[in-house]
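User: We ran a pulldown and think these components assemble together. Before we commit to crystallization trials, I'd like a predicted model of the whole complex to look at. Sequences follow.
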Amino acid sequence: MRFASDNTSGAAPEIMAAVVKSNDGYDRSYGADAAMGRVTALVRKVFQAPQAVVHLVATGTAANALSIASHCPPWGAVFCHTHAHIAEDECGAPEFFSGAKLVLVPGDQGKMTPATLADALSRTGEGGVHGVQRGMLSLTNVTEAGTVYSPSEIKALTDLAKARGLPCHLDGARFANALVATGATPAEMTWQAGIDVLSLGGTKNGCLGVEGVVLFNPEKAWELELRRKRAGHLFSKNRFLAAQIEAYLTDGLWLRLAAQANAMGQRLASGLAAQGATVPDAPANMLFPLWSPGTHDRLEAAGAQFYRLFAPEGRERARLVTSWSTTAADVDAFLAALQP
Amino acid sequence: MRFASDNTSGAAPEIMAAVVKSNDGYDRSYGADAAMGRVTALVRKVFQAPQAVVHLVATGTAANALSIASHCPPWGAVFCHTHAHIAEDECGAPEFFSGAKLVLVPGDQGKMTPATLADALSRTGEGGVHGVQRGMLSLTNVTEAGTVYSPSEIKALTDLAKARGLPCHLDGARFANALVATGATPAEMTWQAGIDVLSLGGTKNGCLGVEGVVLFNPEKAWELELRRKRAGHLFSKNRFLAAQIEAYLTDGLWLRLAAQANAMGQRLASGLAAQGATVPDAPANMLFPLWSPGTHDRLEAAGAQFYRLFAPEGRERARLVTSWSTTAADVDAFLAALQP
Amino acid sequence: MRFASDNTSGAAPEIMAAVVKSNDGYDRSYGADAAMGRVTALVRKVFQAPQAVVHLVATGTAANALSIASHCPPWGAVFCHTHAHIAEDECGAPEFFSGAKLVLVPGDQGKMTPATLADALSRTGEGGVHGVQRGMLSLTNVTEAGTVYSPSEIKALTDLAKARGLPCHLDGARFANALVATGATPAEMTWQAGIDVLSLGGTKNGCLGVEGVVLFNPEKAWELELRRKRAGHLFSKNRFLAAQIEAYLTDGLWLRLAAQANAMGQRLASGLAAQGATVPDAPANMLFPLWSPGTHDRLEAAGAQFYRLFAPEGRERARLVTSWSTTAADVDAFLAALQP
Amino acid sequence: MRFASDNTSGAAPEIMAAVVKSNDGYDRSYGADAAMGRVTALVRKVFQAPQAVVHLVATGTAANALSIASHCPPWGAVFCHTHAHIAEDECGAPEFFSGAKLVLVPGDQGKMTPATLADALSRTGEGGVHGVQRGMLSLTNVTEAGTVYSPSEIKALTDLAKARGLPCHLDGARFANALVATGATPAEMTWQAGIDVLSLGGTKNGCLGVEGVVLFNPEKAWELELRRKRAGHLFSKNRFLAAQIEAYLTDGLWLRLAAQANAMGQRLASGLAAQGATVPDAPANMLFPLWSPGTHDRLEAAGAQFYRLFAPEGRERARLVTSWSTTAADVDAFLAALQP
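Assistant: Here's a predicted model for the assembly, 1360 residues in total across the polymer chains.
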């Protein structure tokens, strides 16, 4: 009953097998390894983007901070949701790497809207040299609230940014889960929807620790390499990152892993609703149910793991995350423990 | 005949096995995993330092830059050798993380001396507010020139720094090789010799990618954690870093791996000298031989891999690095290829 | 009818005379000038703070950014009002100098309240290493909305910060105007109310360009000097800054200048109200009146200068600022032009 | 006998008069003042550069650091002389503003040579992503050693930089003195010699505190404005900076002031040599004479002010600087005091 986070899961067997296999013999270091060329080819194929460039790092914070630093000047504003991971959970890494300032855009359930974004855009950079300038847009999909943007919703937001000449970033720590939840293709969710740079998550979805910075506009590729090195994020034994992402993207493994996580999320959501919990929109693998007081204690007493969140008076709220390794038995045990 | 770098080797079987084993089931994320507690205990035991704190990162550049940033203010000078890795091979990461300035201290064969350090110390920070202030000392062992500082040599340098009130860092990307080459204990080479913070290398010596920042002065521990997160170097699945370093430090594996690398380095040095090459002092696993023109081409034609370096007129110079996975057969094949 | 800003005024005659007089002969540079010693003594006397240290810079942004950088670590949160000058009008200077993150605290009419501050404090730094840590409090008096904190209001806010161990900064770009408006002494408004570091404004109140960073806790004095130099804010001919602030603080000139500005502000407020404009609380020299559509155009046609701001439907809003050089005739001319 | 530095002098009467005059009435703030437009026209005329843009700041460190930050990326190397002001006397401001790294280029008497620069260029940025990349060139004229580059010497150096695609900066803290010493025109010394951005010094040569950042390539103009604001270097009452530089550049005042300083420097040099002191090449207003032991004490006992520097065994070395306000009587009194 491990629902605290998808990063408490280990690596999928196929990923670990690829890492073990990649350990055979010598290989060139610092990204010149044999697998890295195959990774680039795979990314281009999967995203239908023949010019795309991908650089690997080991953490999502690194992927996000490097993506932002290479697309926003130090005097720029990064428009992101009030509760974006880059705003709340990266201890200032995006600002440290870029010098830029985050401008928080509100919106229900983790999603900004064209109206809230337009408002933030209109109120920033209008003071001439006195304030920071409009810099870039950063979206997250799956959002921190467990909701999902459709490609057309993303497009509506990037259109506003692009009308101001701003580049657009997608924090895809749970990108595969968003694809599965929407049925969109990788291309539809990214460059076809106006995304210039993607943090392609692997860690939460069955890898040991790997994220790709995918540049659909390759002119930033060399700058990104330099920033990666300068931030200590270039692996000498890059082969071990490449092996993970290669296996991840091969034969749809990433989508199968995400499909399992999402399916378990939906099974959980149904079961919760059936027992009377309030379950806000949660089409992927992250749920924020509200239930009655005492439930938290009862679940934990039964061995369940999850995060307790602030809740309105007279209610309790939890964060529950399923992963590639969650089983139906795990879900059902949790639901059984939920019963008073 | 892979002598380009010890980072072209893979992971030692024991390390990889530990990683595979650590993948079993769920574990807490962000360093709260079960193995991390064992790693701390191991580091304290191995270093005879009951108060030491260790934080893990995946690259040596991260370990160095974080060590420096947490011990030197933005207006401080970091005294390091002219050819230190932090000065030449990290694309400015130490300056990026800390804001500090590197003051280059000369010295033959990669080693500063008490005289050159004293000179640099006396010429820095004397201009009041106009120049950067003396900040900290950073040494490297094994040095970039393949030479080794003895504990007493380190002590002589840290004494000068400490007389100025400066903390002292050791870049130990090849720390185990230095221990083997000198016969010193980890404690003798570090805190007993005046070192406050160590970058404990694992990657080049048989790990997939892990380095420990070992703080002998634990009061910086929380700051270092925050800086690590802020730099994107906190792994969610830290268990995979902890598993590596745990196996590495258990039952002397790290020293056995380094002993093999060093033994192969010495076998290579002897063979080179026997064939008339000039081999500067190289007590560990990195050699910089000089030989006659045409040798580079002949060796590469035979399939040898190494770095070509600048050399005086009429000579060629190579960098040769052995590793835990170098075999006597590798060395002998190289020596055979060397023969005209 | 120049009401755009108090910084469109020139320097008061006494200040300019002091600058001219200070030009006589040679003087030591970089703050070792004769006047600087007198300035320190004056500041200590005026603030009844025998240990206080003051460093001079030429702009308010520099004073604020240096104050913050020397009291907040790069991973810290600076709690400030949503519309603070440091948040909206300094193009990210506080973040650039400090690395810190601004956490915006709401509140009506430019003032945070104990409740809004307590809420922000409780929601920051609770996520362990994932989010920025509570760093410091920064208040502004006179606020950006033209309102004024009393010493007891400041104390109520700094008490909350100090209960968390946080240092407290006061942006006093219009500090003299706040003193005049409240009748408080400099000591009552600062260290007696929990302020550790003050940006003591001179520029807007009759100087050419000078602000003092007043440290009531002198242990940061040397760090602040180094940060000032490193930011290019140490004047070689510091005598010209010292001369300004010396004249400014001598014989209560600063308070007389502010008294004139405030008196003209009150005359303006009364006249506006008498003509039916809505004039929110404005006890000092900055007013944000609301009036009926068409008024802006009519005033500008008459030669009045001011800022147009966003206003609710069916209204117009202006920013009007009086200064030491505003005369009753200026005010009356404006009021006359206001009449339909 | 004030020869410690040209910044111990006050402001020239014409400059001070202009400041006083500029205080009349109201003026627009933040650089929109009436004088600023005239300053731009003057700079364009004086430099025969119709596209040039100039931004004013109050210190040379600010001018240099902003010039560098707007022309060099954070991963770039700034090639400057080993003893450049930006390297030794600005407490790391260039690195703070830009993130870049200074690569020190040696050369006798404060001047790099095509050979030493070519060597530094060839040794930087060759390690791919591991080291910083070639970023820009920064020269100083008059140099820190009191020597002067001719326009053709500057051209020879900028040619090397431009062959690598690098922009070129000139630190002209004593630019007028260099013009007088060489007879070159402002255009010949700057853009015609390959300079893209100039720190145009005013402070040391008779201003209160003003320096111009002159961009011959105006495409960086907006970025420079933003960086200036973000660094706290935009004056609200910019009129007082503009008034200084306007008077300075009008009717050749700047050259007359520098001519006086240089003439006094030459009078001093001749007198020193006549008395047996060794006077290295010093064509402008800064001398580094060597004389016999005991001279320092004798001069100071007579009331002379100057800097004592390191000297070879058996000698003493001083730094002597003349300024616009140095008189023949000052020089002669010093020479009289020098006599044993």
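The two ends of chain A are 17 Å apart (CA to CA). That may be worth checking against your pulldown data before setting up trials.

User: Thanks, that helps.
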